[in-house]
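Budget justification aside, the reviewers requested a transparent look at the raw inputs and outputs of the sequence design task funded under Objective 1. We therefore reproduce one unedited record. The lines immediately below are the structure tokens for a 133-residue chain.
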């Protein structure tokens, strides 16, 4: 529970880290989900707001990618699959978006559906995903 001293200290550490200006997008995604699980709604919303500004919007979907990544080639008959880290960080943002009390708003659900659309487009022919885990 969030009241346990170890969890409370860990959340304090995350809160201090969340204040840094130069957090990586993957770090923000993980922290947003951690704060969502801990019930820290304001921190979750702040991080999700920051992440939304960094989102890649393409073909009616939303995802996140590593900063400084080269744009993908737009070749006919070629379906690009994102690296596993990008699938994972986008999935963490989706989980943070949907983990709220009492329930996600209609606006949050609409945005979440755009994220889910991108994630589902990353499935391989067997229905799985590339993963680092």
């Amino acid at each position: 529970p969030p009241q346990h001293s170890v969890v409370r200290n860990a959340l304090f550490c995350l809160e201090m880290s969340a204040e840094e200006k130069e957090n990586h997008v993957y770090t923000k995604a993980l922290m947003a989900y951690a704060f969502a699980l801990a019930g820290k709604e304001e921190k979750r919303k702040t991080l999700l707001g920051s992440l939304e500004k960094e989102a890649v919007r393409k073909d009616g979907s939303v995802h996140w990618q590593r900063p400084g990544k080269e744009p993908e080639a737009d070749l006919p008959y070629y379906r690009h699959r994102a690296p596993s880290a990008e699938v994972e960080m986008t999935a963490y943002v989706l989980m943070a978006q949907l983990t709220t009390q009492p329930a996600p708003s209609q606006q949050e659900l609409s945005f979440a559906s755009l994220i889910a659309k991108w994630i589902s487009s990353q499935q391989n022919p067997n229905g799985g995903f590339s993963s680092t885990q």
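The chain has one domain: 5-122. The mean pLDDT is 86. Computational costs for records of this kind are itemized in the attached budget.
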